[in-house]
Design goal:
The structure holds two protein chains of two kinds.
Chain A lengths: L4 H9 L1 E5 L3 H12 L5 E6 L14 H4 L18 E4 L3 E5 L4 E4 L4 E3 L2 E4 L3 E3 L5 H4 L4 E2 L4 H12 L5 E4 L3 H12 L4 E5 L6 H4 L1 H13 L3 E4 L3 E6 L5 E6 L4 E3 L2 E4 L3 E3 L11 E2 L2 E3 L5 E3 L5 E7 L4 E5 L5 E5 L2 H15 L14 E6 L2 E7 L6 E8 L4 E8 L2 E8 L5 H9 L21 E2 L14 E3 L21
Parallel strand pairs in A: 1-2, 1-7, 2-3, 7-21, 9-16, 10-11, 10-16, 11-12, 19-22
Antiparallel strand pairs in A: 4-5, 5-6, 8-17, 13-14, 14-15, 18-19, 20-21, 22-23, 23-30, 24-25, 25-28, 26-27, 26-29, 27-28
Chain B lengths: L2 E2 L2 H5 L8 H7 L4 E4 L4 E3 L2 H8 L4 E2 L31 H13 L12 H13 L6 E3 H6 L1 H11 L6 H12 L9 H31 L5 H7 L10 H14 L2 H16 L1 H9 L4 H11 L6 E6 L3 E3 L2 E3 L4 E4 L1 H4 L34 H18 E2 L2 E2 L19 E3 L2 E2 L2
Parallel strand pairs in B: 1-2, 3-9
Antiparallel strand pairs in B: 2-3, 4-6, 5-12, 6-9, 7-8, 10-13, 11-12
Classes of the chains: A alpha/beta, B alpha+beta.
The structure holds flavin-adenine dinucleotide and protoporphyrin IX containing FE.
The site of protoporphyrin IX containing FE (HEM) has 23 residues of chain B, from helix 11, helix 12 and helix 16.
Chain lengths: ~475, ~400
């Protein structure tokens, strides 16, 4: 391969810095080595742990089946990196090509990958958030603490927000036979991610498993017992519930504060990048040496009208990291676009939920196989007459077929006959996504317009109203 | 529209020993109509896509009667088993079987058989003592899987011989009937009779286990109340237990026999396996790719027109997928005609794919791994007596009828 001199030098002895030492950061580092990068590789991460996996935290770890410190990500290969764990990046100087760290030191780079992900949106009232018994769940430490508390057998657990994470936590509580109340501002659980038609099925699962589900209400306040322990929650409908544990599952915020003033197009909705994972600056011009991957990225997707998508999906972090790493050390014409079709899974109440595409762009839905009532089905989502997404409940084996339909922009409703078509599969209905100006909790795909510097916050899962 | 005349040649016994050149010819047109009617699909990605396509049905009641050509193996007096049903019936029955057979409800069912499997293997090999020649099929591969199925289901040891007899007869239904019309008539009569006796035997066992359940799979099935759906009726149990017997019998026999045949044709690999028994794990996967016991998946039906690889398969067509050809597709597997025991990224079609993928695969893997590792360890200087060996007639479940092996002695 004929490489020009400077690229050759970069590959041989360049300095690559990765900020965010989790899934995307690790997979990018492995890809860099895999593709022949032999220079210095620095991994900066503010958590003290080597990269670990998050999906088990709300599932096997909370259930007590897997200890939180047994979630280390499997390594695909050695990466020979300099690890700066426990050190947060605090600033970026684009012209000096330097990352500043919290300990006062700094690291220079020839290429930078930003993979700082997201964090849980905290309970908005700081005093209440500080009560003993109030939790969020994003990190290993969060999971250890929450698991410990669940093991102690609290009288009741309140889950605030019924997105995927909140629903999984509620499911674990029921499996542990703990009384649980779920409060959701939207009309059903999962309505932000999957719409209320599917959300109604999710609600049935909650009820069937003994969850005290309250939809269309906000938690307005958390009340302590005088010595700083959570005792009670107040709802917007005037009701209350006594609980010793509250888990705040109100979605996530992008970790971009450290980039304020850096000149990158970074904001609360993430860092905008092009399809090749190169970061945009605030002028809308791509930077050649700064790349973005994982939950923190917003990137335009050709399948969805080149709109910018922010995806909080495990598979996206891996695929995007691989593309970013490749593009960091190759010639311009060898760059690859990140064309990954969004894909997500969840396990709750004994049901395996999977989705592909971007459900919350859809206007209509049809149950193309199976039946909502049986809680086993495949549903296709339509947008302007084409298939844009699909979701399966315990029917994951069909998902791939629908992924191809999405990728081929196949017509909606699907015009063909299939196995297991029921009467409810004869006619599409409105998918029931809430008005984007009334946020629900944790839609894990955010579609955010065409502009790289679009920082309006119109569809971010907002916090609950402040207490009255 | 182009068509080929290859299905006849594939089914022709003269090509049984080496069908792979025919498959290579077939792959020149990934999806093609055979003169005899069915559409043949021979390339990896096209097979994969059709195995995951909800417009494709496994229920032969969707197929026009004149399009049905493959021999029937099931008891005509019982409802279809789930391998020949579509969702939702397929899913319900498969779920109910899985509740008694695999995780999460019965996670130890298969794994728990490991000790017994290695005991059965040792016992069968011990019987080679004092001989310098065996027929691997009759002396080992054939009796082995039925014994394992009996233990899995919970057929008492004293009944195993009778069970073997029915299993053998029922399995012959897979072969095309030969001989005079009277002989063919007698052949089908015998099979029907065996089905009846098997069904009667199983009903008795189910009734017994219902009264006094044990730890076995029949007890679990007989006493299961279902989770949120109706449990299996007695005819459904009979039909699907028979399916386990049939689907897990000839296939496993052929995997083990093909395995020894392939090892004896690749002496270096055989040596490697003897030195490193753990190699058997990837080796069995490569075997399932290279010499799959299920070569063809005949008679699926299209519920709608399907456009694939530049061809439109019309609604109502009979589809024959050729997984053994997909397994040798150079667009999916580099150097597909080489047997590479530690081949990486080996997503073969040996156990099918999609909703009908084999539920017996964990068990079949354990059996084949145990058998091949132990045969290779204990047989001293094993050699093929004839190559190719004589094959069974069946082109779908393809494998040697006999595999004579000479050897110098037996290790402990
Ligand atoms: C409880 C839970 C369950 C989940 N379940 C599923 C699931 O079932 N299916 C699915 O598809 N996805 C699931 N996800 C989402 C999935 O885990 C994420 O998509 C994935 O972790 C994204 O990886 P990432 O590397 O982009 O970001 P992260 O994993 O968020 O990693 C970012 C890292 O950067 C660090 N960091 C942040 N700022 C700085 C800084 N300034 N300096 C240094 N380091 C910094 C963070 O501490 C973190 O370690 C789940 C997530 C959670 C929390
Ligand atoms: C080497 C041994 C085996 C091979 C190669 C094999 C292969 C296959 C294949 C290819 C299929 C897919 C059929 C289709 O798509 O129509 C299948 C299905 C099936 N197999 Fe196996 N099999 C083996 C052993 C077993 C065993 C031991 C059992 C039982 C314990 C078993 C039970 C089944 C059943 C029940 C099905 C139907 C599944 C369904 O329709 O959902 N198989 N097998």
């Amino acid at each position: 391969m004929a490489l020009d001199g400077s690229l050759e030098r970069l590959r041989r002895e360049g300095r690559i810095v990765v900020v965010g030492a989790s899934l995307a950061g690790l997979r990018a580092a492995e890809t860099l080595r895999e593709e022949g990068f032999t220079g210095t590789l620095t991994m900066i991460g503010d958590e003290p742990y080597e990269p670990y996996d998050r999906p088990p935290l709300s599932k096997q770890v909370l259930l007590g089946r897997v200890p939180a410190d047994h979630t280390a990500l499997p390594r695909r290969r050695a990466i020979e990196a300099q690890w700066r764990l426990g050190a947060a990046a605090t600033g970026l100087d684009l012209s000096a090509k330097r990352v500043a760290l919290a300990d006062g030191t700094s690291v220079e780079y020839d290429r930078l990958l930003i993979a700082t992900g997201v964090r849980s949106r905290p309970w908005p009232n700081e005093l209440e958030a500080g009560l003993d018994g109030v939790f969020v769940l994003r990190t290993r430490d969060d999971a250890t603490r929450l698991r410990h508390r669940l093991k102690a057998g609290p009288s009741r657990v309140l889950v605030i927000g019924a997105g995927f994470t909140g629903s999984e936590i509620a499911s674990v509580c029921r499996e542990r036979d703990l009384p649980v109340t779920v409060a959701e501002r939207g009309p059903t659980p999962l309505s932000g991610a999957l719409g209320s038609v599917i959300g109604d099925v999710a609600a049935q699962l909650h009820h069937q498993h003994g969850v005290d589900l309250r939809c269309g209400v906000m938690v307005t306040g958390l009340e302590g017992d005088g010595v700083g322990r959570l005792r009670r929650a107040h709802f917007s409908d005037g009701g209350t519930v006594d609980a010793e544990v509250a888990v705040v599952a109100l979605g996530a915020t992008r970790n971009t504060e450290w980039l304020a003033g850096s000149g990158l197009a970074a904001g609360p909705r993430g860092i905008a990048c092009d399809a090749g994972c190169r970061a945009f600056d605030v002028r809308g011009i791509v930077a050649d040496d700064v790349f973005v991957a994982g939950d923190v990225a917003r990137s335009p997707h050709p399948l969805f009208g080149y709109r910018f998508l922010s995806l909080e999906h495990w598979g996206n972090a891996v695929a995007q990291a691989e593309v970013a790493a490749h593009n960091m050390i190759c010639r311009g014409e060898e760059r690859r676009p990140h064309l990954w079709t969004p894909y997500f899974w969840s396990a709750q109440f004994g049901v395996n939920i999977k989705s592909v595409g971007v459900p919350n762009m859809a206007d209509q839905i049809i149950v193309s196989q199976g039946s909502l009532g049986e809680h086993r089905f495949t549903a296709a989502y339509g947008y302007q007459g084409r298939v844009i997404a699909a979701v399966t409940f315990d029917q994951a084996k069909w998902l791939e077929f629908y992924q191809r339909q999405i990728e081929q922009a196949a017509p909606f409703p699907p015009p063909f006959a299939t196995v297991d078509r029921r009467t409810e599969g004869m006619r599409p209905v409105p998918a029931g996504f809430p008005d984007p100006s009334v946020p629900t909790h944790g839609p894990q795909v955010t579609v955010s317009g065409y502009s790289p510097t679009d920082q309006r916050v119109t569809f971010t899962p907002a916090g609950h109203g402040h207490h009255a | 529209m182009t068509s080929v005349a290859l299905l006849g040649q594939i089914l022709d016994y003269a090509n049984r020993a080496d069908p792979y050149p025919l498959y290579a010819e077939l792959r020149r047109t990934p999806v093609v109509r055979d003169e005899s009617g069915p559409y043949l699909v021979s390339t990896y990605w096209e097979i994969h896509s059709l195995l995951h396509d909800p417009r494709v049905s496994s229920d032969i009641r969707n197929l026009a009667p004149e399009a049905k050509t493959a021999p029937r193996t099931e008891d005509p007096d019982l409802p279809p088993s789930f391998i020949r049903l579509d969702p939702p019936d397929h899913d319900r029955l498969r779920r109910l079987i899985m509740r008694t057979y695999g995780p999460p409800h019965a996670p130890r069912r298969v794994y728990g058989l490991r000790g017994e499997i290695s005991g059965i293997v040792s016992g069968l090999i011990d019987r080679f003592q004092g001989r310098d020649r065996i027929d691997l099929v009759d002396d080992f591969s054939y009796p082995f899987p039925v014994t394992v199925i009996c233990r899995l289901l919970g057929v008492p040891q004293e009944d195993e011989q009778r069970f073997h007899g029915w299993a053998d007869t029922v399995a012959t239904a897979i072969e095309p009937a030969v001989g005079t019309p009277e002989e063919q008539q007698a052949h089908w009569q015998a099979i029907r009779e065996a089905h009846h006796q098997l069904a009667e035997y199983l009903s008795g066992l189910i009734a017994q286990r219902r009264r006094a359940p044990r730890e076995d799979m029949i007890s679990a099935l007989a006493t299961d109340r279902g989770a949120d759906e109706s449990p299996m009726s007695l005819p459904e149990m009979l039909s699907n237990l028979t399916l386990l017997l049939i689907a897990g019998h000839e296939t496993t026999v052929n995997l083990i026999t093909n395995g020894m045949l392939t090892l004896l044709r690749h002496p270096d690999t055989l040596k490697q396996l003897r030195a490193d028994p753990d190699l058997v794990i990837p080796l069995v996967e490569e075997l399932l790719r290279f010499e799959p016991p299920v070569q063809l998946l005949p008679e699926r039906t299209t519920l709608d027109d399907i456009e694939i690889a530049g061809t439109t398969i019309p609604q109502g067509a009979s589809l024959w997928l050729v997984p053994a050809s997909g397994n040798r597709d150079p667009r999916r597997f580099p150097e597909p005609d080489r047997f590479l025991p530690d081949r990486p990224d080996n997503q073969h079609f040996g156990f099918g794919s999609g909703i009908h993928n084999c539920i017996g695969s964990p068990l079949a893997r354990l059996e084949a791994q145990a058998a091949l590792a132990e045969l290779v360890r204990r047989l001293d200087n094993p050699r093929l007596v004839e190559d190719p060996p004589p094959y069974r007639h069946n082109a779908v479940l393809r494998g040697p009828r006999h595999l004579p092996i000479a050897f110098d002695g037996l290790s402990r």
